[in-house]
Structures are given as C-alpha cells and as structure tokens.
Design a protein that fits this description.
- This protein folds into 2 domains: 115 residues, NAD(P)-binding Rossmann-like Domain (Rossmann fold, 3-Layer(aba) Sandwich), CATH 3.40.50; 232 residues, Dihydrodipicolinate Reductase, domain 2 (2-Layer Sandwich).
- Helices cover 35% and strands 26% of the residues.
- The strands form 3 sheets. Strands 7, 8, 9, 10, 11, 12 and 13 form a 7-stranded mixed β-sheet that branches. The protein has a 6-stranded parallel β-sheet with strand order 3-2-1-4-5-6, with helices on both faces. A 4-stranded antiparallel β-sheet has the order 15-16-14-17.
- Strand 4, helix 3 and strand 5 form a beta-alpha-beta unit.
- The chain starts with a strand and ends in a 5-residue tail after the last strand.
Length: 397
Amino acid sequence: MNKPITIGLYGFGVVGQGFYEILQRSTSMDVKVQKICVKDESKSRALDMDSFTFDRYALLKDSEVGLIVELISDADAAFEIVKYALENGKDVISANKKMIAQHMQELIELQEKHGTSLLYEASSCSSIPILRNLEEYYDNDLLKSVSGVMNASTNYILTKIFRLDRDYDLAVKEAQDLGYAEADPRLDLIGLDGLYKMLILVTHAYGIVVKPEEVVTHGIQNISKYDIKFAREKGYIIRHTCHATKVGDNEIAMYVLPEFVKEDNLFYGIEYEDNGVMVDAAFSGGQFFKGKGAGGFATGSAVISDLSARSYDYKYAYKKRSYDLGNSVTNDYEITVYLRYYDQKNCDAFQFEKILGQFNSDKYSYVIGTIKLSSILSVGDRLNNADIMMVKISDWQ
C-alpha cells in the first residue's frame, strides 16, 4: 500500500506546472504539496501567492517535508538543493539531466551514505519509462547496445526541415515558441542534452559512470542547405542520435551525433517532439520504446510515476554497478561519417583511417570516411565551433 507523502516542489515552469496539474487530478496517491519554491518574486502565478516560498532552504529544513521534487533549469542550483536534501534525510525526485549526468558518482555515493533515494525517470526521454526498465527488466540481460533519438528540440527542428522544408532558423524559433527548446537552445543544438541523457542511461544499462568529455558529441547547429540537399539526394533524412555499443567483453563505445537514416530505420518515424530508444539485448532481443520527449504533461507524468514508485519505497539499486561487471568506456572504435567542411585544415585535423570518397562543390567540400572515435575527440572544440557538419552514416557504398 502506498504511504502518504508531504513534498516540497522546486520550480513552477512548464514541467512544474504540468506535474502539479497531473497531481491534482490523481486519486491514487495521498500527496500534500507543502509549498512551491520559485525564484522570481515579481512573476505572476496561476496559484495564490500563499502557495509559494522564495527561500531555497525553507522546504529543505521543514521537518514535515519528506520528499523534494526538483524541477528547475539551473543545474548548479539544482545540485545544491538535491545534495542538501539527500544529506539531511529527504528523498528526491529530479528531472535535471545535466545535473545528474555531471554529478552521477557523487549522487550515488550520497544515497548510499545517507540511506536516501534519488529517482529521475523524467530526466531521460520524458514520458518513456526507460530507466526502470534498464534497472529491472534488463537487470540480468547482456545488452549489446542502447541507442536513441533523445532530444525533442533537435528532433522537432529536423522534422520541420525534412518534412515541411522549413528554414533552420525558423524551425528553431518554432521549437522555442512551443517550449521544446529553451530561450538559449545551445545545449540542445550542440548535442549536450542528448549526451546527458545517454550518460544516465549508460549507468543503468552497463553499470559505469562516464564523464561528458569522454564521449564524442556533435549537434546540428552547423547544418547547412548543402547538407540537407545531400541527404535528400541520397534518400536520407537526418536524426540526432545517441549510441552506446558493447565492444568485446567489457568495453562500451559511445557517441552522440547527427545520423543519416532511411525509411527502414526505426528512428526515421520518430518525428517532432517524440523520442525513441532501442535496446538490443542478448536474450530478449531488440525492443523499441517511443514516446513524447518534451512538454509539461509528458515530463510531469514521469515525475508522477517516480512519486508513485517512491510511495511504495522503490529506489534504484544500480544493479549493474553492484554486479561489478568490469565495464569501461572505449574510444578505440571506428565509425563511418560524412564530414562537410569549408577549410581543408579542419578536414585534415580528423586524420581519417580510410577515405571512401571526397567531393567538392562551389563553396563546400565533403568527405566520406572511416574514423576512430579517439581521432574525433582529439580535435577538441573545433568539431562544434568550426564550419563543420559531421553526420554518422551506416550504409555508404
């Protein structure tokens, strides 16, 4: 039987309001919202001001509050709140993928040390229940790979470009207007949002904590009409995808890149704000999860699911970590990519292992080649800052 819970809610933006509205409609849980902590005192709210507090520590120090629901966008402030709560006997539910991915090791240790629980299903692909599936359903299966379209903002933008022939800048603005992209959408566009989600999934899939700087990451911010034309001529569309693949017995290769996909690829049909995750397991085979990857109700529903699970005392066991499988991340792994560039020096810096074809146009040039992840990492920030577009390509002939 679920138990009554008194919560302190941090944040009342799109996700916070979505969660709150779903909670008001729920009849299966006995939940009291003590107060909602927000930052801006001048902003008008949908609720009476008595429902809010502006003191960050008011809820953290309230003895009646047993669980903190953290739904703010500031990753640094979120970590301070979550850390204080876990250290002082309060359980936490969070949707902040950046905060969790950057502090995963410490967050695990805090839970172990203080006997508290942190749940964060909403941090990774919003409405898709992937984390508890990795923890419970796949806890004893050998996973060959976990991959997916995990960022709703870039997926919405790419869908607008390829389905409706929308200009890139206009597609970005439309994503912002709908709340799928932030006012500053850079974290989405350069691929970091997808990376953070993938790092979280990998901890539960393979039992390892990987640092963001260890993973090849490239976004769609440099996409040009030339890249779009190339994709269409070859029968592709572009999706922004995240991959973790088992290599040998104990190594995991990871990368987050735009990818050319055709109609026979499951990611082809993941459109607009939807996300999709593919899990390929040794014993249970391939299974595909699809659902809304953004929006107040979609993300709020995942927070509600965590709240319900916690009312039954559920907590992550981090089972793959406890099995001590000896897994580690590797960048000694080769992929095939399309690299569109303007400056030959930028192309030369990647040190391709094998060139499959090189082409020139009036302005841009591009190369199709095989390259190790380590070689891509070696160019550092140039990948995202230069006039370069790199796209994974799996079926070049």
